[in-house]
Each structure stands twice: as C-alpha cells, then as structure tokens.
Write a structure and sequence with these properties.
single chain, Rossmann fold, 7-stranded parallel β-sheet, two-stranded parallel sheet, 11 helices, about 35% helix
Length: about 325
C-alpha cells in the first residue's frame, strides 16, 4: 500500500517567487499548502496540480496559532514572505525578523523535516539599511531555532511579473529621462524560477544546511541594466546619473509625505532606505555556496528579458510587424 503524498507549506506561496515554488513542488507529487493572508486572492494556484493537490489557506505570520495551524502535519516548510514596506503592521521587522523567528521556532516544535528560508543578498544585522538589517536578524533567528535550515539569498529576481525590469520599462514609456541612482552599483539578476528550483532542491532534503547566495550568470551595473532594457523596448532615453545625496533627500521627502498623509500616499517611488541599499553591490560573495553547489545552471537575462519586456514596446506584440511594414514602404 503506497504512502500518502508528502506535504509542504509555503508561506507567501502566491507571491512572485512562491507561486513558482508551489508549481514545482506540485510537479514533484507533493501536496501543497499556500499559506497567505488572503486565500481568496490566491485561488489561481489551484490548477498548479491535480484537484485538491494545491490549496490556499489563511495564515498570518504575525500570529503563533495561525502559523502553527498552517504547518500542522507538514514535512517541509518554505518561508518566502517578504516586504518592501518599512511602516505599518507588516513592516520590515514584523515580516523579515519576527515572522522568520516564528516560522522557524514553530517548525522545530512541529518536527518539520526541512525548512527553507528566503532571505536576500546583503542581509546583515550591521547594515545601514533597515531592509538588510531585518533580513539579517531573520537569518539569525532561523539559525538559532532550526540549525538544519537552508537559507537562500537571491540577488534581484526577474521574471514576467517582476517589479524591477518592468518598473524601469514602464518609466521609459512615460519619461524621456532615465534617472540613474547608483549607476555604478553592481547587480547579478537571477531568474525567479531558478531560485524556485533551488528552494525545491532544499525542500526535498537534497541540499546541505547553510546559506546559499544565488545570482545569475551576468554581473551588470545599474546603468548597464538600463542599457539592456532600452533596445528591447525600442526606446531611446537620456540616462542621467543622480548623486546619492540628491537621491537620499528625495527619498526622505517622499517618506515624510507618506507619514504626513498617514499612509494615504504610499511611497512606492523611492525611499531613503532603498537609496542606502543602492550604495552596496548586490552580487554573490566570492566564497559563498551558490547554484553550482546545488548543481543548477542559472539562465541568463538575454535568454528571457525579451520574452516579456516586449509588452512595453510602442506597439507591443505588433512592434516587429510594424517595423517590417515601415521597412517595406521605405
């Protein structure tokens, strides 16, 4: 008589990264619980597997009982909840530090076999950035409560729904100028599904405990990344380098505006903390465990960016057809 499929609980399983992990775990034959605050908004994950195999459930990582219920009976737990909001109830500390501590502590109490924690390159309790500090604190808590955990630190992730390349492409559609903050800061963008593959390897118990830094095959400066985007979306824009002190003043002003309006204006443009992050290279450390340690070959930006950034071209999917027509008439 065959045993029942194993169960994985993915906190934040409907998010940008989480949905890729959920899909891959379902393909491995596991039952998948997608633990989120709004299950009704995560119904789209159900078709990732057979009927009843993938189920969104209610969970709030700020509450012990909620987290414990979500992971009850789970063989593996993946925590990929993250935030870019430093204020409110779901702030950096509540999510990256306290939330990570709660999940790790209860995973140990519930005798979960494997815990995978998604952090970020640059995580450091001594960082000037609150975002990096909170991620660093979260890692400390995870190691304390669940020493066997696998911690993944991806660089900037890209994919069809990313908030990085799509954001700059959207800006290029409406502005003749591309302001570059941290023009010389280096990044190592990584395809989101490659990170998901690493998480699955760890969840299946095929990765040694420890911290892995995950970056793609290309290291590029911020200016270089913008230079990659513009030809793909068929836009010519003036690139202007913005000094850090100017960017910091703008970020602080926008943060103050958000505070004074009691959150009615949400600063999704530029925060002072983001400026601090942009001062530091976002690349894999020289002696870190990497994709190579997991026997995974990450995909390049060139192989994938055009597959979704084409939507930002002047004529979208019809741009090449339009360009061909112009060449014929010329």
């Amino acid at each position: 008589m065959s045993s029942s499929p194993k169960l994985v609980t993915i906190f934040g399983g409907s998010g940008f990264l989480g949905r890729y992990i959920a899909r891959r775990m379902a393909k491995q034959g596991w039952r998948v619980r997608v633990a989120v605050r709004r299950p009704n908004e995560a119904i789209f994950v159900k078709p990732y597997g057979a009927v009843g195999q993938v189920e969104p459930i209610l969970a709030n990582i700020r509450d012990d009982a909620s987290v414990a219920a979500a992971m009850a009976g789970a063989d593996a737990v993946v925590n990929c909840v993250g935030t870019f909001d430093k204020a409110g109830r779901n702030n950096f500390n509540a999510v990256h530090a306290e939330g990570a501590e709660r999940i790790a502590r209860l995973a140990k109490a519930n005798k979960v076999s494997q815990l995978v924690h998604i952090s970020a390159i640059g995580a450091d309790v001594d960082s000037d950035s609150l975002y990096a500090q909170s991620n660093g604190a979260g890692e400390v808590f995870v190691k304390k409560h669940f020493p066997r955990a696998v911690i993944l630190r991806p660089s900037v992730m890209f994919g069809s729904d990313d908030r990085f390349f799509n954001r700059f492409a959207q800006l290029a559609k409406i502005s003749p100028i591309m302001p570059l903050i941290g023009a010389d800061t280096k990044f190592q963008p990584v395809f989101v599904d490659d990170v998901a593959q690493a998480a699955v390897v760890a969840a299946l118990g095929n990765a040694k405990a420890g911290v892995y830094e995950l970056g793609g095959p290309d290291v590029e400066t911020m200016e270089g990344l913008i230079s990659r985007i513009l030809p793909i979306i068929r836009r010519r824009r003036l690139k202007v380098k913005v000094p850090f002190f100017v960017a910091a003043l703008k970020g602080k002003a926008l943060d103050i505006a958000s505070s004074l309006t009691l959150g009615l204006f949400k600063n999704k443009i530029l925060t002072a903390d983001q400026v601090k992050q942009l001062r530091v290279d976002n690349v894999v450390a020289p002696r870190a465990k990497t994709f190579a340690t997991l026997d995974i070959e990450p995909k390049s930006m060139d192989a994938l960016l055009e597959s979704y950034l084409y939507a930002h071209r002047p004529y979208g999917q019809y741009t090449e057809l339009t360009e061909s027509g112009k060449n014929l008439s010329a």
